[in-house]
Amino acid sequence: MAGKSTEKLALVIVIVAALMTVASIGAARDKISPEEWLDKMSVAVKTVNFEGTVIRSQDGDVQPLRVVHKKIDGVVNERIVVQEGNGLEVIRIGDEVHCILPDQKSVLVEQWENASTLFATLPDGTIEPGAQYDVLILDRDQRVAGRSVVKLAIRPNDGYRFEHRFWLDQQTGFPLRTELIDQNGDIVDQLKFADIRIDAEIAARSLEPSMSLVDFTWYKSPGKREREEIQTDWVSDTLPAGFKAVSTRKQLLEGSESAVTHIVFGDGMASVSVFISEIEETGMSKSTRRGSSNSFSTNVDGYRVTAVGEVPAVTVELIASSMRLR
Amino acid sequence: MNDTIRMQISAFIDGELPDNESELLLRRLSQDAELRRVVARYMEIGRNMRQEAELPRMAQLRHRIAEELGAEPRTEEIVSTRLGNRYFKPLAGIAVAASVAILAIVGLQQTNAPTAEAEAVADSSTYTQPPADSRLDEMFRLHDASGSVGNNSMLTEFVTLEINEEDLVKVEPQAEFVVSSESDEEEDDEETATETDEADLQAN
User: Fold this and answer.
1) A221 to B145: CB separation less than 8 angstroms, yes or no
2) Tens of pLDDT along chain A (326 residues)?
């Protein structure tokens, strides 16, 4: 009897210890600040290997994609397959990308220079919480794709930018769901994983085309884009707080002989492009909206100035109208 | 394939083949897919050996083959009509750049794809369907490509493809991609063949 009692006691101790460990892990997770979660996310999107199904919704369009992502010797290897429609596949090895169009029996070869295929906009590490945006934890007990997540918001403190929401995997910090919210509280863009395997074994074959390409025709666009930075005398005299110029280039618009000056302003999360050209067109000021992007064109000192960005209409109007020649 | 052809290819790649022989070789290349694959493989090998991102001759070869094939339609298989605004699916803050690229490609083939666009004269609250504005399209495109905070250039690349449709050139598949989708057995054979070709090339 005494032996059984001892066993029971030992079992109870083990269970209590296990519960305490679980609780302390949970408590430790609860202590992670929103900013630390953002840092964790930044690392995760660069390091996590995964295979899963992504659903993207925008303007009522829903697009399911199968995505396999694996870093091999520091090089991003990816395969993305459209799950509906024409069966398009995108194979990426580092910067080289092959887009396979099965119904056209064609392959388009392209060079892409950025590291992230899936996430086009993530915080760039220069956000100062409490300045233009607040970073908040909204919920710690949700699940996405069968995994526990913490829900974060990057919420603007003024009407010049949109709100971003992230559902981050509790274990890795990888974003399993993202939303872009406009100033009316409407979701204008959403992406979420329906299922995902993180850091699981990924077979080499799952990164290869699913079909033989032997009789496919291969195409390449020889076009090159201008990447050189230039100096400009154009400045903005009233940028919304937190925005600053991050790049300036001369670029040719298609169908136009003369180059435009292209200045990008960013606040660490949102970015706005300003294009300045000598007037080839006359006309009044004009605003345009496409999904979550807005543009505003106006005339300044004999030049046509257009601002474009994933920001509220008021922001592109303010920035375009604020441009001045020094 | 006989040694003469191998030597010709090798000389052509090195820029040492006389013009008249180059023309003959190009004509033959235009009619012989297998030969084109061999050339592409040679060039790939050379590129790997030299650790070069791109062999200068590769571009020239692409160009000349494209010229040689000039009689047949070059891009109609992919792009039959210009679609203007339909490429420009809005890119929001958290965009799946990949799917944007995919939408762009789907757009290449769906001429009746709906556009999600509205335009208004400034200070007006009423949106109306706008006329096509290619300059503005181009600006949206360049903005999407310019992202300072990690924006991906996928959309841009595909729209560039559309814009340059008349300049599109046919290129040769890279052997490893073609081979990888075949059976393992064939894969082994191809690898052996590649090694043999490499040995021949070095011997030459």
Assistant:
1) no
2) 556 677 777 777 777 777 666 566 566 666 789 989 988 998 898 889 999 998 877 666 677 889 999 999 988 899 988 787 777 788 888 878 788 878 777 787 766 655 456 665 677 766 777 789 999 999 999 999 999 999 999 999 999 999 999 999 999 999 999 998 988 898 888 889 999 999 888 888 899 999 988 888 887 754 445 567 889 999 999 999 999 998 898 887 755 677 899 999 998 888 899 999 987 666 788 898 876 788 999 999 889 999 999 899 999 999 999 999 98
A131 vs A314: CA distance, rounded Å: 19
**β-sheet bridge partners, residue A153:** A136, A165
Q: Which residue has the tokens 């046919």?
A: B170
Instruction: Report chain A's terminal Cα–Cα distance, integer Å.
Output: 93
Instruction: Collapse the DSSP code of B140 into the 3-class scheme (helix H, G, I; strand E, B; otherwise coil) and give the result.
Output: helix
- Which amino acid belongs to residue A15? I
Q: d(Cα A156, Cα A162) in Å, to the nearest integer? A: 7
Q: Which two tokens stand for residue A16?
A: 């209590």
What's phi and psi for B130, nearest 5 deg?
Answer: -90, 160
Q: How would you class A184 by CB atoms within 10 Å of its CB: exposed for 0-12, middle for 13-18, buried for 19 or more?
A: exposed
pTM: 0.61
Cα–Cα distances in angstroms (integers) from residue B139 to residues A263, A269, B48, B63, B185, in the given order: 11, 20, 38, 29, 49
Residue B53 contacts A, CB cutoff 8 Å = no
Residues of B in contact with A298 (CB under 8 A): 122
A75 - beta bridge partners? Answer: A72
Closest CA to A221 of B165, B60, B56, B59: B165
Longest dimension (CA), chain B: 74
A positions 271-290 inside 8 Å of B (CB) = 271-273, 275, 281, 284-290
Inter-chain contact B164–A90, Cβ cutoff 8 Å?
A: no
Minimal CA–CA distance to A170: which of A200, A137, A203? A137
Which stretch of DSSP H or E encloses residue B56? helix B56-68
Closest partner CB to B146 (pick from A82, A108, A247): A247
Q: Is the Cβ of A47 closer than 8 Å to some Cβ of chain B?
A: no
Helix (H, G, I), strand (E, B) or coil at A146: coil
Residue A20, both tokens = 């305490």
Q: How far apart are the first and last CA of chain B?
A: 14
- The verdict on A116 touching B (C-beta cutoff 8 Å) is yes
